[in-house]
Specification:
InterPro entries: SusD-like_N (IPR033985), SusD_RagB_dom (IPR012944), TPR-like_helical_dom_sf (IPR011990). It comes from Fodinibius roseus. Keywords: Cell outer membrane, Membrane, Signal. Helix 15 packs antiparallel against helix 16. Helices cover 44% and strands 6% of the residues. Helix 14 links the parallel strand 7 and strand 8. It is mainly alpha-helical and 549 residues long. It has a three-stranded mixed sheet, with no helix packed on it. It has a two-stranded antiparallel ribbon with strand order 1-3. The chain has a domain of 108 residues.
């Protein structure tokens, strides 16, 4: 009887009710626009979520695994990274959900919706094409050849096949060119797709296709041209202070070309992630609340430790000499916590009195001798003491506006496209076209580096660029992308695009090699979800798995 009762309760509690929308609803003005808005929703499954960040941050040269979390195999490239991988399945399902909604919008716009003008239908179709191109771009980077459909799904479909990479890129480019031709420079509502957002994304697409099997002869030129258009033809500008780009409350700033929106209204902040909202604030922290003088606060965040910076990130990419002239280490990481629980504590074998507002924890960034540490009235954590629990936390995603200390839902927009990245796209394109002495590449790198410089150090950072680009080549550009875009969901894509994943991850991330890891050449693609293969008529013969899995 007890067993039966529990089963009954479990079934009742897990029951899900889904509202049904009739097919004809999308042929009305309200239903059509609801479908357009819904087409943006799957972006929240990728941006600002543990799944999206795990797929793009883990297993690279800049981030390795922290002490907690369920997806360490993604960092290690171990045998658990297979066709049953939850992360790959999550992204696959949600991207295709987005694609199907966009196909619905495009089909209805093409057929005409009574009460919707042709001008509006074309504009909404352009939004949907921007999104469809975006979803397919994520898929083709992660999985290679994927199922390509531009038709609205109206029933159960069991046939699927893997279109060649070139065909997928052709569709992406076609969609984004349509969006560029038919979208306004400024959206009537913040967050909708725009012409410059489409140009920025297409520049990124050409830059990526240039190193794929489908490379076109003018891909780098196209990427450079589009990036120059975004930089020069609109009102976007690099903020004077790098810290302001990610400042809380300043998400809508002049550097942001396009963002994925979240909300502080719980009813409007639902996401596909079960944590809801933008949960990126959770994953880069460390357990500060276990240290003397501190307890958990909304300001300091929930102390999850999913992603731990590599020694390469903290000590080489942001080396001590560069930190003297480049502000981005100081403005990316939180290197000090103030006392909020005053008292007397034993630290490194010494009794110390901590007053409210004093420094409780300090990450000095260099290996301070123990005797010197003991002279400090604080907990000092040096690089030689960094481990899977204690490390400097990345602070750009933190969200102190959450309703309580245990709330996981964040409300900050995800800054998907910003002008600093546009400059870096241009720099990489010119580097590959014109070589390491390219003045154009140097100028775009220096635009980003000058903004990052401490006041008075601008000449120092610009003087280093030509020599570094000549001697280090694409590695210098990757380092610059690392300093500027750390933790923003680019790194795995960057390393695969430049064919540096194996070299740099193996050199700088101890987890990807034995005994924990096993990074191989085939890991430059993710596994096709087994669920997709199983539900395809013909199974693996019709929808084969990526090699190696």
């Amino acid at each position: 009887m007890i067993a039966g009762l529990f089963v009954s309760c479990s079934d009742f509690l897990q029951e899900e009710v889904h509202t049904q929308v009739s097919d004809t609803r999308y042929n009305t003005p309200d239903g059509f626009n609801e479908a357009v808005n819904a087409a943006y929703y799957p972006l929240r499954s990728f941006y600002g979520t543990e799944q999206g960040l795990t797929a793009t941050v883990f297993g690279t040269d800049t981030y390795r695994e922290g002490a907690d979390g369920d997806f360490k195999y993604m960092n290690r490239y171990s045998n658990e990274l297979d066709a049953f991988d939850d992360i790959s399945d999550w992204i696959w399902q949600n991207m295709y959900e987005g694609i199907n909604i966009t196909n619905t919008v495009i089909a209805r716009a093409g057929a005409g919706v009574e009460g919707v003008s042709q001008e509006e239908a074309t504009r909404r179709s352009a939004e949907a094409r921007f999104l469809r191109g975006h979803y397919y771009f994520i898929l083709v980077q992660l999985f290679g050849p994927v199922h390509l459909t531009t038709e609205e799904t109206e029933g159960v479909e069991l046939e699927a096949s893997r279109a060649p990479v070139g065909q997928v890129y052709d569709q992406i480019i076609s969609d984004l060119e349509f969006a560029i031709a038919n979208l306004p420079v400024e959206a009537e509502q913040y967050g909708r797709a725009t012409k410059p957002a489409s140009e920025h994304l297409l520049a990124r697409v050409y830059l990526t296709r240039a190193t794929s099997d489908a490379a076109g002869s003018d891909d780098y030129q196209q990427a450079a041209n589009l990036a120059e258009t975004v930089i020069n033809d609109y009102s976007f500008e690099l903020l004077e202070d790098f810290a302001d780009v990610h400042a809380v409350g300043n998400e809508r700033n002049a550097e942001v070309i396009w963002a994925v929106q979240f909300s502080d209204n719980p009813l409007a902040n639902e996401s596909a992630d079960d944590k809801n909202g933008n949960s990126s604030h959770l994953y880069f922290n460390f357990p500060y609340d276990q240290e003397p003088g501190l307890f958990r606060t909304v300001e300091f965040g929930r102390p999850f430790r999913r992603f731990r910076p590599t020694q390469f990130t903290t000590q080489e990419m942001f080396n001590l000499d560069d930190r003297e002239v480049d502000s981005r280490y100081k403005k990316s990481f939180k290197d000090a916590f103030r006392v909020i629980d005053p008292g007397t504590y034993e630290i490194d074998g010494v009794q110390k009195d901590l007053a409210e507002g004093d420094t409780a924890i300090w990450f000095p960034g260099y290996n301070m001798p123990l005797a010197e540490q003991q002279e400090k009235d604080m907990q000092v954590i040096t690089p030689e003491e960094y481990n899977s629990i204690n490390f400097p936390p990345l602070w750009k995603h933190m969200d102190p506006n959450r309703a309580g200390v245990n709330v996981t839902a964040g409300s900050r927009d995800w800054l998907a496209f910003r002008l600093a990245e546009t400059h870096l796209i241009a720099a990489e394109a010119y580097f590959y076209m014109e070589g390491p002495t390219s003045v154009n590449a140097i100028d775009h790198l220096n635009a980003v580096r000058v903004r990052a410089a401490w006041p008075g150090e601008e000449a120092t950072v610009t003087a280093r660029t030509p020599q570094a680009l000549t001697s280090e080549g694409i590695d210098f550009i990757l380092d610059e992308r690392g300093r500027e875009l750390l933790g923003e969901g680019f790194r795995w894509f960057d390393l695969v695009r430049t064919d540096k994943l194996l070299e740099r991850a193996k050199a700088h991330n101890p987890d990807v090699v034995a005994p924990l890891g096993n990074l191989q050449e085939f890991h430059k693609l993710r596994p096709i979800p087994q669920a997709q293969i199983d539900r395809t008529e013909g199974g693996s013969d019709a929808f084969p798995q990526n090699p190696g899995y």
